[in-house]
Amino acid sequence: MVRASVIGCGNMGSALVRGLSESGTHAVTACDVDPAALETVEDCAETTTDPSVAAEADVVVVAIKPGLVVDVVDDLDLSPDQILVSFAAGVPTSVLEPHTDATLVRAMPNLAAETQNMAAAVTGETIPEEVTTLLGAVGEFVEVEESQMDIATAVNGSGPAFVFYLIGAMRDAGVDAGLEPDDAEVLAAQTFKGAAETVLRSERSIEELIDAVCSPKGTTIEGMEVLWDSTADEAVADAVGAAEQRSAELAADIDDD
Ligand SMILES: NC(=O)C1=CN([C@@H]2O[C@H](COP(=O)(O)OP(=O)(O)OC[C@H]3O[C@@H](n4cnc5c(N)ncnc54)[C@H](OP(=O)(O)O)[C@@H]3O)[C@@H](O)[C@H]2O)C=CC1
Ligand SMILES: O=C(O)[C@@H]1CCC=N1
């Protein structure tokens, strides 16, 4: 079994640890400076506050804040036969490379690793099988150019927050019109889940799928006319663009340090 360690068990790292634990594909060591963070994953991993223990794994994932990652990678002192995966938003491979002897891979995961529904973007000259196996164990991944990492970060890294917002808006509309809040949340969230699954499985385009829901003279077309006449698509594009720009700024900040 591949030995993986996850350094930083906050929101993202703990989601990965839980997802890997469900998959049963890896022996996972979880490392964090915060004992409370480790407590949240103690049921699904060997836990440690000692980075030198975590550094013994075949694949070491760093899931700590972008501003801390260079120092932490320096201290890990990994060897060439190890693989280092950085989840840090806006930290280019070229910044981390001089600080490690390990094979370095930059990836942008998301919180759905916890339920093994993660969408991840990964970049690197060659992506070792150990990394594709790890990412594949908790969801789907696509390989992108490093120059595409800022936009990928916005779409799939930040994306869950944008989707949570949209689910909330759909729930609130249901509640305002008389549904119980819990019922409205289930109906809205399950509808997003089902629609996403349909897009992933169907060979039809998104436009064809919209058409399939719109019965002639029915209900959906009335709602779609409102969306098509609105600037909802622009608001989504603006949100994605703002996140993309911030990812690029993070890189510039790190370069300045
Ligand atoms: N949250 C998300 O949805 C996503 C996050 N990411 C990336 O993942 C990384 C982590 O983000 P997130 O999980 O949200 O951040 P969190 O702050 O929730 O988690 C980071 C954890 O790392 C701990 N930590 C800090 N320094 C060290 C160290 N030297 N050794 C071990 N642990 C340490 C922190 O402890 P303490 O709080 O005490 O400092 C904290 O528990 C970031 O780089 C982010 O860009 C990527 C995709 C999605
Ligand atoms: O907000 C952030 O910076 C991190 C990276 C992507 C999701 N969360």
UniProtKB/TrEMBL annotation:
NADP(+) binds at residues 7-12, 63-66. HAMAP family: P5C_reductase. InterPro entries: 6-PGluconate_DH-like_C_sf (IPR008927), NAD(P)-bd_dom_sf (IPR036291), P5C_Rdtase_cat_N (IPR028939), P5CR_dimer (IPR029036), Pyrroline-COOH_reductase (IPR000304). PANTHER family: PYRROLINE-5-CARBOXYLATE REDUCTASE, PYRROLINE-5-CARBOXYLATE REDUCTASE 3. It is found in: Cytoplasm. The lineage of its organism: Archaea, Methanobacteriati, Methanobacteriota, Stenosarchaea group, Halobacteria. Its main location: cytoplasm. One of its GO terms (molecular function) is pyrroline-5-carboxylate reductase activity. Residues 146-250 form the Pyrroline-5-carboxylate reductase dimerisation domain. Catalyzes the reduction of 1-pyrroline-5-carboxylate (PCA) to L-proline. Pfam families: F420_oxidored, P5CR_dimer. The keyword Transmembrane does not apply. One of its GO terms (cellular component) is cytoplasm. This is Pyrroline-5-carboxylate reductase. Pathway: Amino-acid biosynthesis; L-proline biosynthesis; L-proline from L-glutamate 5-semialdehyde: step 1/1. Belongs to the pyrroline-5-carboxylate reductase family. It is an enzyme of class 1 (oxidoreductase). Keywords: Amino-acid biosynthesis, Cytoplasm, NADP, Oxidoreductase, Proline biosynthesis. Its EC number is 1.5.1.2. Residues 6-90 form the Pyrroline-5-carboxylate reductase catalytic N-terminal domain. The gene is proC. It catalyses: L-proline + NAD(+) = (S)-1-pyrroline-5-carboxylate + NADH + 2 H(+); L-proline + NADP(+) = (S)-1-pyrroline-5-carboxylate + NADPH + 2 H(+). GO terms for biological process: L-proline biosynthetic process.
